[in-house]
């Protein structure tokens, strides 16, 4: 049988001759980045100019605040999103699911859990591919707990969530989210591994261990990887921009019109029950990060506590009902219950901790 | 010719099916397209990430949406 190769153009994968980026492409890339930076830096002054000079609204007025917020935040978030999605799209072309599986196959727990959580960030993943991915991991002999570390980190810590948190709430919140998301994935996976629940995987899955995975290695050159980055931008930015604009619009209205401390009584630090309530409310909600971050931004602005809000966001993204329904095909109900319990516990803990220390 | 498009029916699986249909139309190859959506069936083929494309029993792509040029090459060779 012929070796299987996917190449974008003939000869590219065999000769290896045009595998390098040309100086011209590199120059264009740097120039593009420079333009991006210059425009990005002008966004704030432009939003002031637009709202207060051009439209003649007065500073501190409800309408002025709302419009300035919208005119500043929308292009800012979209520019950040485009850049990061492009870079992540390129990085992801190095990490296929097959490669990740191979990396994790021989790993022991602990170190394996940590690795799986980090690989969960960079490996391409969508919730509908969770089941085949799970099957592949089991088949390759990846320990169950390590598999769960991956399955928890992959949806929870994603580049869109991080970009939006950074863009709207600053790098500290983004870092807190990143580290607690990774922490939950590592620890929850480790606990599930300790519990030795392999017998709660559906029986037909166990029988797969004998089989062999078909791997089609793609040979990509730099032009292909750049193309992957562009595809990711078209795919993701094309899909989420509407959510972002709508979310920022709602955020802008709240920003300008709803009184401060409105949320403090319901989602504030003093209401301890708000953390578990936020987690419970989040489970049946299914939204991507793009839709949820602007809402969170608005809630925080009106006096909700950071821990409560993070718990809500994590619950919406990481504990999704549709994904559990899909996973039911390979996991017995008890194992899904343990999964929800352990991850939910981790999210609760995160929520309480941040409410306590911040 | 038998072409299997494997995937549970997510957006990229639908995209793959469309690309296959376009490739068949462009080349005029006589082919039956079968959508395999059952995870167990997919796993039996040795495929663990979707979408995947199987042409006459040979797995041609796994875990990504193939390009139409490539699909045309696979079904004409």
Order of helices and strands of chain A: HHHHHHHHHHHHHHHHH
Rounded to an integer in angstroms, the radius of gyration calculated over CA atoms of chain B is 11 Å
Beta-strand residue percentage of chain A: under 5%
One letter per element, helices H and strands E, the order of chain B comes to EHEHEEH
Helical coverage of chain A, percent range: over 70%
- Class of secondary structure makeup of chain A: mainly alpha
What number is the mean pLDDT of chain B? 88
Greatest interface and its residue counts? A-B, 32 and 28 residues
The number of distinct helices of chain A, counting runs of at least 4 residues, comes to: 17
Compact summary:
Chain A has 17 helices and no strands. With 358 residues, chain A is an all-alpha fold. In chain A, 40% of the residues are buried.
Could you name the key traits of this structure?
heterodimer; A: 358 residues; mainly alpha; 17 helices; 72% helix; 0% strand; flat; disordered N terminus; B: 77 residues; alpha+beta; Glutaredoxin; 4-stranded mixed β-sheet; globular
How would you describe this structure to a colleague?
The complex is a heterodimer of chains A (358) and B (77). Chain A contains 17 helices and no strands. By secondary structure, chain A is mainly alpha-helical. Chain A has a domain at 97-209 and 255-357. In chain A, helix 11 (222-257) packs parallel to helix 14 and helix 15 packs antiparallel against helix 17 (333-357). The radius of gyration of chain A is 23 Å and the shape is flat. Chain A starts with 11 loop residues before the first helix and ends with a helix. Chain B is α+β, with helices and mostly antiparallel strands. Chain B has one domain: Glutaredoxin, CATH 3.40.30. Helix content of chain B is 42%, strand content 25%. Chain B has helices at residues 11-27, 39-44, 68-76, and strands at residues 2-6, 32-36, 52-55, 58-62. In chain B, helix 1 packs across helix 3. Chain B is globular, with a radius of gyration of 11 Å. The termini of chain B are close together. The A-B interface holds A 1, 4, 6-8, 96-98, 101, 124, 126, 128-129, 131-133, 135-137, 139, 204, 208, 211-216, 218, 326, 329-330 and B 7-10, 12-13, 39-40, 42-50, 58-64, 66-67, 69-70.
């Amino acid at each position: 049988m012929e070796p299987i190769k996917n190449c974008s153009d003939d000869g590219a994968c065999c000769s290896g001759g045009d595998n390098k980026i040309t100086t011209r492409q590199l120059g264009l890339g740097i120039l593009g980045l420079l333009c991006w930076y210059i425009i990005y830096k002008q966004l704030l002054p432009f939003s002031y100019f637009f709202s207060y000079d051009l439209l003649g609204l007065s500073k501190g007025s409800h309408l002025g605040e709302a419009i300035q917020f919208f005119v500043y935040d929308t292009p800012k978030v979209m520019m950040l999103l485009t850049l990061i999605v492009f870079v992540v799209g390129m990085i992801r072309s190095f990490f296929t699911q097959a490669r990740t599986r191979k990396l994790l196959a021989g790993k022991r727990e602990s170190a394996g859990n940590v690795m799986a959580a980090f690989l969960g960030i960079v490996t391409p993943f969508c919730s509908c591919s969770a089941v085949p991915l799970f099957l592949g991991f089991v088949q390759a002999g990846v320990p169950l707990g390590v598999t769960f570390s991956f399955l928890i980190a992959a949806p929870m810590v994603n580049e869109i969530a991080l970009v939006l948190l950074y863009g709207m709430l600053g790098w500290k919140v983004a870092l807190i989210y990143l580290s607690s998301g990774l922490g939950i994935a590592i620890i929850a996976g480790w606990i599930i591994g300790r519990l030795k629940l392999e017998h709660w995987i559906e029986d037909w899955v166990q029988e797969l261990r004998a089989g062999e995975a078909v791997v089609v290695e793609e040979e990509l050159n730099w032009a292909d990887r750049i193309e992957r980055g562009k595809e990711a931008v078209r795919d993701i930015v094309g899909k989420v921009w509407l959510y972002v604009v709508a979310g920022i619009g709602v955020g802008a209205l709240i920003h300008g019109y709803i009184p401060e401390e409105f949320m403090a009584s319901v989602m504030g630090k003093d209401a301890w029950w708000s953390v578990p309530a936020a987690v419970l409310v989040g489970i049946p909600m299914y939204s991507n990060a793009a839709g949820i971050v602007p809402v969170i931004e608005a809630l925080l602005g009106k006096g909700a506590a950071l821990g409560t809000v993070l718990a809500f966001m994590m619950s919406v993204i990481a504990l999704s009902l549709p994904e559990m329904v899909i996973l039911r095909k390979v996991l017995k109900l008890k194992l899904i219950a343990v999964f929800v319990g352990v991850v939910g516990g981790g999210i609760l803990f995160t929520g309480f901790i941040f409410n306590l220390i911040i | 010719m038998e072409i299997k498009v494997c995937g549970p029916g997510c957006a990229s699986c639908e995209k793959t099916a469309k690309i296959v249909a376009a490739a068949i139309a462009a080349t005029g190859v006589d082919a039956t397209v079968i959508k395999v959506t059952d995870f167990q069936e997919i796993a039996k083929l040795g495929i663990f990430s979707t979408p995947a494309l199987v042409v006459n029993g040979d797995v041609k792509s796994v875990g990504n949406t193939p390009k139409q040029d490539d699909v045309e090459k696979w079904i004409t060779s």
